[in-house]
Write a structure and sequence with these properties.
By secondary structure, this protein is an alpha+beta fold. It has a single domain, classed as Alpha-Beta Plaits, CATH 3.30.70.100. Helix content is 38%, strand content 29%. Strands 2-3-1-4 form a four-stranded antiparallel sheet.
Length: 105
């Protein structure tokens, strides 16, 4: 997933990310706890302007809305121990991530 984030790097501006991860009914509660932990940590990181997560219990889907002050600070986030542990969890459970760099209309 860090490689996906690196594709969103821009040299001149703040970076806004929207990510979607679909869990399954068996891993939803565990995933929910992992997401809560990652969100709490990420909000304390240097350069994090916004880091919100939402979920749809019916579809077991998690949504992330992130805003980072600089591409380099987003890159530092992707190298943090909590983020890498989260990515490892996603890989172990074969969870697909849809990642989008977004811009306001």
């Amino acid at each position: 997933m860090a490689e996906i984030y690196s594709a969103c790097k821009r040299e001149d501006a703040m970076v806004k990310i929207f990510a979607i991860i679909r869990a399954d009914s068996h891993s939803f509660d565990e995933m929910h706890a992992k997401v809560e932990s990652l969100v709490a940590y990420s909000r304390t990181e240097n350069g994090c302007i916004k880091y919100k997560s939402f979920f749809d219990r019916k579809s077991h889907t998690f949504f992330f809305d992130e805003e980072w002050a600089e591409p380099e600070l987003l890159e530092a986030h992707t190298k943090s121990a909590p983020f890498l542990a989260f990515v490892e969890y996603l890989m172990e459970h074969d969870l697909e991530v849809q990642l989008h760099e977004i811009e306001e209309v």
